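REQUEST FORM: STRUCTURE PREDICTION
Request ID: SP-0412
Submitted by: Lab K.M.
Chain count: 1
Length (residues): 633
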Amino acid sequence: MSDQIKHECGFVLIRLRKPLEYYKEKYGTWMYGLHKLYLLMEKQHNRGQDGAGVVSLKLDQKSGTKYLSRQRSNKQNPIQEVFKRINMAMGKIDGSSTELMKDPEWAKQNLPFCGELYLGHLRYGTFGRSSIDYVHPVMRENNWRSRNLVLAGNFNLTNVDEIFENLEDLGQHPKDFTDTVTMLENVGHFLDEENQLLFRQYKNEGYTNREISHKIETDLDVRKILERSSRRWDGGYVIAGMFGHGDSFVARDPWGIRPASYYLDDEVVVVASERAVIQTAMNVAIRDVQELKPGHALIVKKNGEVSEELVRVPQERRSCSFERIYFSRGSDKYIYQERKKLGKLLAPTLLKMVDYDLEKTVFSYIPNTAETAFYGMIEGVRDACDKIKIEKIKKLGSDITDEKLEKIMQVEPRFEKMAIKDVKMRTFIADDESRDDLVAHVYDVTYGIVKNQEDTLVVIDDSIVRGTTLKKSILKILDRLHPKKIIIVSSAPQIRYPDCYGIDMAKLGDFCAFRAAIELLKDRGMKNIIDDVYKKCKEQQNLPKEEIVNYVCEIYKPFSPQEVSDKIAEMLKPHDIDAEVSIVYQSVENLHKACPNDKGDWYFTGNYPTPGGNKVVNTSFINFMEGRNARAY
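STATUS: Completed
RESULT:
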């Protein structure tokens, strides 16, 4: 993706189901779980570079000994920093000789992060807050083990204000107004209630306080806690957590917006944001990794029992299509196939645009994430090329000769790696003009391939969000090759609406498709539509989210997708380049053909899966009209 946008976080939960001595004997080290945690986090580092954190829990520790350890970092390489600190912490223990550290029994009693349960997190700060306080996992501590709560997740809620107000009505005083703190206190409240309910029950049955604590740890109903906590949650989420006595869980939203997969055997339970990383880290087949079902929670009790339980009634599946287009690692079998198909489905449109003149067309891609879609695009062009060859051969009839046949067969699509991503340059220069000049050199090009003022250059990107990098960098760089025409292709449809479920796309004014539609309305004397939409949005501003309608769709109604694309091309073309510029976007129909099981398309269609989505787009449009550079949720 040439435009830099922030997106979903990543998480890993690991529960060892055997004593630590087992892993020492079989794998040569009690650190088996810690090593797997590091590998799984590194394999998901694409999901968050703003911060990383790890919590370890030791089961059945004696009173007076530490059983929870946490390490977090918001430095430049947070994963490496976290594990560096973990290793340093273990090396500082008095008497920790090399041999003693290898002993699992001694290590569990003396070393931090020597436990049976691990929770790791990678953060993308969609709210732009880089403080260590906002790095997961977050903790709610208590002197009773079963009331301790550790939480981490990949989530954004659209109705934090409602949940926050509910906490205040309960008499709480949350320390911050964020979805992280709100969710932590929300789950913590129902954890406290469940503990209190069981305490009263067992007290009435005559048990001592000490006996009650142990019985609560055994009988705590994790499913009920999650079911009661999540009733008000509107948004996309995967929440991973653990209680101090050893129960753990991962819960997924009922629309399946955010992804989660898991693997389990008699040795270990592993849950992570992406299936492919589990396959790689655990060296298991795709059939061994299960998707956590929407509306369900994977619950691992202290005794190691595992169950997948219904927490909220599943809704129509609306899993995020951007996971397929861009965010998830392309090593997943199905994601790789889908990205190829996204490129392949664009081939007929592109061939028509270049008038099937393959001799004067060069195909390429924006490195590096668009590479898979590029392979699919070339495959589609080749298929079309083969059909053309067959028709030409048929037309020869009996007049076929080796020379004529050879001439037909020589026609092949020209594809090259034209754009090369240079070393990432830091924009530390203060003034805008100098910074823009630096940005213009993020990519370099391969010279000598394109014929001056003859060839058309077709370059595919996986999505075009703001268009800033295109305007300030890519188009200028490609123009150095002196093509007659540049066609920029997006394997994703036009991004028209804000996201509120994890991706950092909250402001309508940031989207080049929205800006183009606004300009078209002004150009054609239809500014009244803008004013009408603003009036309708203002009228429903204070309605409950369930009653709000997405009137922003009316901004796009007068225009075809191609009209909007043409306006985007006009707006993004730098004034100082010679080549003609066109922009082609994927259609929503083709998106669903390529990704049939992941139909979360609200960024393209405005069809939000939850009521909170309509509230967000309504607020976002009001912010745009009133000139407020603020988030809509």
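NOTES: The longest helix spans residues 179-204.
Reviewed by: T.R.
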